[in-house]
Specification:
Distance between the termini: 21 Å
CATH architecture of the largest domain: 3-Layer(aba) Sandwich
CATH topology of the largest domain: Mannitol-specific EII, Chain A
Number of helices: 13
Order of helices and strands: EHHEEEEHHHHEHEEHHHHHEEH
Largest sheet: 5 strands, mixed
Helix content: 25-40%
CATH superfamily of the largest domain: Mannitol-specific EII, Chain A
Radius of gyration: 23 Å
Number of strands: 10
Strand content: 15-25%
Length: 301
């Protein structure tokens, strides 16, 4: 099936005004309701309230410049999509968004929704495609362009559809001070280790770093209650500029491929007790998928 098959030209707009986010949402909802109100229970303000509530619970903007607010509507017998291309981007906590797509689905249509989102995200990362779309004039032009481009909505959601692309990485020769700064600044618990050509070499997690500060003799003890200070960890502070990521990274951890299924990713997370996996293809790092990605983008979608 193609993305264009889910769209109604009347629910697509190009906006030149400077508008607040809530008004952009409201106008998209109005366009959808004007054409499909017979299929849309609680159309209008209740939908806007639900979208805003949903937005408070989970981020809806992506680094590629698209925001995809969505809700599941009880009794909705369809998947309804409205979109606005913005000349003046909205700011989503530092992410500049110039394409807003609202999606309303029935509570039983998660798979369809996820596949549509995957198609939209893939399209939003194509700079030439986005330049072409923003240069169009109305909804009919958009649907015609999408038909010509044959933008497909897949049947399966894979790891590639939900992974974090371009994750923060370190090189094998980078010292721990840099790794520590990245982990602290970006609130991640693991950094892939790659060479200058993005070849995957291993991963460095926060436990690997903390282990530097714990002498081997302490690991042999069963009870450390007698230690009242963090003196052993001073070893870590002293070696931040000496030890490199390559010296302490894990080299043999299992990785996922981009076409692996979400179920396989979850199975391995549970089996191996890990909350994240690097995604690698032909030796090159493509991204990282985490348990939180699965929870937010699949379970809570």
């Amino acid at each position: 099936m193609f993305l264009a098959d889910f769209l109604d030209a009347r629910a697509i707009a190009f906006e030149q005004r400077v508008l607040p986010r809530e008004q952009v949402y409201q106008e998209i909802i109005q366009r959808i309701c004007a054409q499909r109100s017979h299929n849309t229970p609680k159309c209008g303000q209740p939908m806007l309230d639900a979208i805003l509530q949903r937005e408070r619970e989970a981020p809806m903007a992506y680094p590629s410049g698209i925001a995809i607010p969505h809700i599941r509507v009880e009794g909705l017998a369809d998947t309804l999509i409205g979109m606005t291309f913005l000349q003046n981007p909205l700011d989503y906590d530092g992410i500049k968004v110039n394409w807003v797509v609202l999606i309303f689905t029935d509570k039983s249509s998660s798979k369809i929704y996820l596949n549509i989102v995957a198609a939209l995200l893939k399209l939003s990362r194509d700079e030439e495609a986005m330049k072409s779309l923003h240069g169009l004039h109305d909804g009919h032009d958009v649907i015609h362009w999408l038909k010509q481009a044959k933008v497909e909505v897949g049947t399966d959601v894979t790891v590639a559809d939900i992974m974090i692309r371009d994750p923060f990485c370190v090189g094998p020769d980078d010292v721990l001070r840099l790794a520590n700064s990245l982990i602290n600044e970006h609130k991640v618990s693991m950094l892939p280790v790659t060479d200058k050509d993005d070849t995957y070499l291993g991963e460095l997690n926060i436990l690997d770093i903390l282990k530097v500060g714990v002498p081997d003799y302490l690991m042999m003890m069963e009870d450390l209650k007698f230690l009242k200070s963090y003196e052993p960890l001073e070893n870590l502070f002293e070696k931040e500029d000496e030890i490199t990521a390559g010296e302490i990274m894990q080299k043999d951890n299992k990785v996922l491929e981009p076409d692996d299924s979400i179920v396989e990713a979850v199975y391995l997370m549970l089996k191996e007790g890990r909350r994240y996996f690097c995604v690698v293809e032909d030796g090159k790092l493509l991204g990282v998928v985490t348990a939180m990605d699965v929870f937010r983008k699949v379970v809570k979608a």
